[in-house]
């Protein structure tokens, strides 16, 4: 276990109590296999475990979440999306409420982040105002969920991508339609749009009824590496160098759209969101293009591309 792996585990923009317990389990697993290589990491893990156990025993999960840099869940510095511009955007929710977004790729496949995986996911399509149902809205549950096959338990979250096969095909309509996969890698300085039902303020959280959008730039690798020296290869950084615009808590799993195609999946970032020189981090969809296409074509045993974590 190295510094990058420890930091990566606690920066996702959607976290709940089960993920906290899973994180502790991962840390304990790594410790038990004698993978700690520095006193800095040992101190960090000890701090995390003490804090986690303390708040879990006292039921103070909200305070615990504030202790960590959180997963992205909402759009900061943006505007309300037009109700006709996101027919591909889906809402993931369960009995506790909405927790992530995703993107419809075909009439039976949804793309989202691996850290959005839950046992009781429901997928809501054709939604704009989460409190108002429209005639085209449809609800599905997963028939299959496929993540990258990774045998390294301690870094299994480094490839933050998941495909969900719906239990039945959806009817394509004005409010429900797929988004295209990328035909080329994204270009630096491209102006792209990210959207979701995540918080529109940070660090205070304000969850909107309708999805918000914000236009941000694909940033150069050097900017990304300066902000996050431990980064994996299959990611994008996007945002504004001066801050003010970002995806945030609640946007996890949603699309980063460039030239009418999905180029990124909202993954993680610093909290508070939209800070100068601290861009959001997105799974780079182009690097997983063959994996996605093979699965949709019926080859569900295909293995993800190597990650340079």
UniProtKB/TrEMBL annotation:
SMART domains noted in UniProt: Tryp_SPc
Record family assignment: Belongs to the peptidase S1 family. Snake venom subfamily.
Peptidase S1 domain segment(s): 75-297
Lineage: Eukaryota, Metazoa, Chordata, Craniata, Vertebrata
Domain of life: Eukaryota
A cellular component annotation (GO) from this entry: secretory granule
Name of the protein this chain belongs to: Snake venom serine protease-like
An example Gene Ontology molecular-function term: toxin activity
Gene Ontology terms describing biological process: proteolysis
Alphabetical UniProt keywords: Disulfide bond, Hemostasis impairing toxin, Hydrolase, Protease, Serine protease, Toxin
PROSITE patterns in the record: TRYPSIN_DOM (PS50240), TRYPSIN_HIS (PS00134), TRYPSIN_SER (PS00135)
rRNA processing is among the record's keywords: no
